[in-house]
Design brief:
GO terms for molecular function: transferase activity. InterPro entries: HAD-like_sf (IPR036412), HAD_sf (IPR023214), LarE (IPR005232), Ni-pincer_cofactor_biosynth (IPR052188), PGP-like_dom2 (IPR023198), Rossmann-like_a/b/a_fold (IPR014729). This is ATP-dependent sacrificial sulfur transferase LarE. By secondary structure, the protein is α/β, with parallel strands linked by helices. Helix 10 packs across helix 11. The chain is built from 20 helices and 15 strands. The strands form four sheets. It has a six-stranded parallel beta sheet with strand order 5-4-1-6-7-8, sandwiched between helices. The protein has a four-stranded parallel beta sheet with strand order 11-10-9-12, sandwiched between helices. It has a three-stranded mixed beta sheet with strand order 13-14-15, covered by helices on one side. The relative contact order is 0.08.
Length: 471
């Protein structure tokens, strides 16, 4: 799987507007020293270390003591009145949304920098202070930062020295032309533009990594369910390798709804790849029928045991599944373990592509599956501990077809009819609840006709993987 995202941020004039506080402290220092500092001019130069700013106005031997006094005055004059720039908290939240770490690397005195972070409630993993220019590179490399956001040409120097992507904002004293001349990769007007840029940047990187990975593989048989993940993987494989070195295989069994079969085949055929539909016999595996918490292990084992020799017969180097990066951290996933034991590859997860990114990329590529609701196999509807049988799978499928028909006018997207053994529980999009009494009555009748004697509508609505709650 891709390495964890780590983003570094400068502090002064990047995350926070330190200009007002700097003016106040400088004025207080000047009053104590009897020096009339050109406060406005010096404030416009914010960025370099304090000692450099004081050099033109104080004797060299006086600068260390003046710097110490500035830092001592700072907490009382510059913390409370300093505000975060618009978009600063949202920029950090964007990193968190991608499960990333946030580090602040600044030339500021560390104790005062921490006061700002605490006062403004910035969610930061690590603070590195008193580093400047290329000196920031050591901290960025040590923390594993691949992106550094700053406002000054010297922030650009630090990012480039660390081999990180340099992102510059125009909230400091440097112009776009100065930042570009320094070699920054990106210039944003402010941090308000950062979340959208980060989303795009990571998607581009991860799609490029996916393409490179598939090209190295040489040829693949895609375990293709017709869902958004495996559809994107199939399309990416064709882009990287060409249709002659790619095949799609959909295992046909009682657990695959009939409604899924034709659309899946049509999409795969539209890419020009060979479409295989071998039968799988997971029902013959005792562990699958028993339907304990590890049922998916036996289902995936059966699928891979069928597909692996097919791939070998066709000279395809790998069997690839549509496992994404979210799946790897989603907790209980015995099917992933079964596939790994059989050497199946997971290109989407290896590239770090999340479910959201799969959908965004699919839309970018005009794939019809970009907004397709999740469609787990029918056996996932049967409560753990209740035996999986063709009869139970069949009535679940009939019930879901009937519910979709009953709610066709409501814009239903997500649906599960859960077989709880002695009754059925229907989960629909929470936004549709509560249903009108007459609509709910029609829904319940439709599920009873499908083969369930007792049925209720779950008031919590659709929840992917809700059966795992019992585990």
């Amino acid at each position: 799987m891709a390495d964890q995202l780590v983003v570094g941020f400068d502090l002064d004039m990047t995350l926070i507007d330190t200009a007002p506080g700097f003016r106040d402290v400088l004025a207080a220092l000047g009053g104590e020293l009897g020096v009339e500092f050109p406060v406005e001019e010096m404030t416009k130069q914010l960025g370099p270390p304090l000692d450099m700013l004081l050099e033109p106005y104080l004797d060299a031997e006086a600068i260390p003591a003046a710097g110490d006094r500035f830092r001592a005055l700072y907490p009382d004059h510059a913390i409370v009145g300093t505000s975060a720039f618009h978009g600063a908290h949202e920029a950090i939240a964007a990193v968190r949304r991608h499960a990333g770490r946030v580090v602040v690397v600044t030339g500021k005195f560390p104790a005062n920098a921490q006061l700002h972070l605490d006062h403004l409630a910035f969610d930061v993993d690590h603070l590195e202070g008193w580093v400047w220019g290329v000196g920031k590179a050591d901290a960025l490399r040590r923390e594993g930062a691949t992106i550094y956001v700053g406002d000054h040409v010297h922030d650009v120097e630090g990012a480039l020295a660390a081999d990180a992507t340099s992102v510059s904002v125009l909230t400091g004293g440097c112009t776009r032309e100065e930042l570009e001349a320094a070699g920054t990769h990106v210039v944003l007007d402010s941090l308000e533009d950062f979340p959208a840029w980060l989303d795009q940047h990571l998607l581009d990187l991860r799609l490029a990594a996916l393409d490179e990975d598939l090209k190295r593989r040489g040829s693949v048989l895609v375990a293709y369910s017709g869902g958004a993940d495996s559809a994107l993987l199939l399309a990416a494989a064709v882009r990287a390798l060409g249709p002659d070195r790619v095949a799609a295989a959909t295992g046909y069994s009682h657990s695959l709804p009939m409604s899924e079969r034709d659309p899946a085949r049509e999409f795969a055929e539209s890419l020009g790849v060979e479409v295989l539909t071998p039968e799988t016999h997971e029902m013959e595996r005792e562990g699958y029928r028993a339907n304990a918490g590890d049922r998916c292990y036996f289902c995936k084992a059966e699928l891979l045991d069928v597909l692996t020799p097919i791939a070998a017969e066709r000279g395809l180097a790998h069997v690839a599944t549509g496992t994404n990066a979210d799946d790897l951290v989603a907790g209980f996933r015995p099917g992933i373990r079964a596939a790994a034991e059989r050497d199946a590859i997971t290109p989407l997860a290896d590239a770090g592509l999340t479910k959201e990114q799969v959908r965004v990329a699919s839309r970018r590529w005009d794939l019809p599956t970009w907004d397709k609701p999740a469609a787990a196999c029918l056996s996932s509807r049967i409560a753990y501990g209740v035996e999986v049988t063709p009869l139970r799978l069949g009535r679940v499928e009939r019930a879901e077809v009937a519910v979709r028909a009953a709610l066709a006018d409501l814009g239903l997207a997500n649906l599960r009819v859960r077989d709880l053994g002695d009754r059925a529980s229907v989960e629909v999009d929470a936004a549709l609840l509560p249903l009108a009494p007459e609509v709910e009555a029609g829904l319940l009748d439709a599920v009873r006709v499908a083969g369930f004697d007792e049925v209720v509508v779950d008031p919590r609505g659709f929840r992917s993987g809700s059966m795992n709650e019992a585990l």
